[in-house]
Amino acid sequence: MPASTIDSVAHARFDEKKAYVQDEQGQAFFDDGREIDLLHFVYRHPSIDEIRGSPTNVLKAIDEYGRTKKYLMNVGDDKGRVVTDLIAEVKPQVMVELGGYIGYSALLFGDAVRKAGGKRYFSLERNPEFAAVIMSLVDLAGLTDIVKVVVGSSAESIKRLYAEGLHHIDLIFLDHWKPAYVTDLKLCEHLRLVSPGTVLAADNVIKPGNPPYLGYVRSSVDQKRQGNSEQLTKVDTSKFGKNADMYKGREGEEHISTEIKGNPNLIYESKLVNSFEPTGEPDGVEITRCVGTAD
Asked: Which pLDDT tens digit goes with each residue over 5-42?
């Protein structure tokens, strides 16, 4: 769909009282020990008895850490509400998130999927240490019946889930390495995991931004068939600055394949929902619906 037809839905003013501390500009703001420190904070919390078995209270403890200790790159309450409202509408049987970090979205959205009658929430996370944090908090929250953590690169994990019998995804939340948004979506198209009825929710399309992804999901079938969106979807990690490099860490540089062409015949309808980062900075979630297949 052309960008000019995209609706922009503004949310209410940000509540400064719930703001996270700012991320450390120019410094590491994750994978510096804070994720394990968060676990100790949660498990030593004075209200640990009330936290056990309650996704809501685990999330409150995580938010408390983010507001009083160190910044955490979570989806946060405001953007999280955009996606939980979507889950209540779509009622996905199977939801997949690309990029789990410490499990905030897995807790929030996994709980929402269960309440909506869904069967499985897959949280794909490349970093095995972060994945262990997710699993610990999912167990604490009592969500092990719905949330399954998959460790490995997003592309390899998608292929593995497909090989193990996953054939359709109802709702996908993209919140991982920004240059991989388009290539992972094309992989899901190629495997027919994305098909009419699938809904996509992509985080951080304003901060730091993701023009290649927006260019792809907003392109018409004719544009994709004719290759007019080739330049928009070409992976150039330099366009993402530090946000493309900050994931290297101990796992090394991410490798993505541009060989898979996806399915240009899928028809998407896409709109931007304006919201806020947990720090209060403006951001948005792109909601994209696969509504059909062109002849």
From this structure: 334 444 578 999 999 999 876 677 899 999 999 999 99
Instruction: Answer yes or no: is pLDDT of 279 > 60.
Output: yes
What is the rounded distance in angstroms from the CA atom of residue 242 to the CA atom of residue 99? 17
Please, are residues 202 and 224 in contact by the beta-carbon 8 Å criterion?
A: no
Cα gap 140→225, rounded to integer Å: 48
Q: Is 277 within 8 Å of 76 (Cβ atoms)?
A: yes
* Tokens standing for residue 128: 């095995």
User: What stretches of the chain adopt beta strand conformation (E)?
Assistant: 8-9, 94-98, 120-125, 147-151, 171-174, 199-202, 266-276, 282-293
What's the alpha-carbon Rg for the chain, to the nearest Å? 18
CB atoms within 10 A of CB 52: 14
CA distance 87 to 83: 6
What is the rounded average pLDDT of the residues 113-125? 98
- Which residues neighbour 164 within 8 Å (Cβ) at sequence distance 6 or greater? none
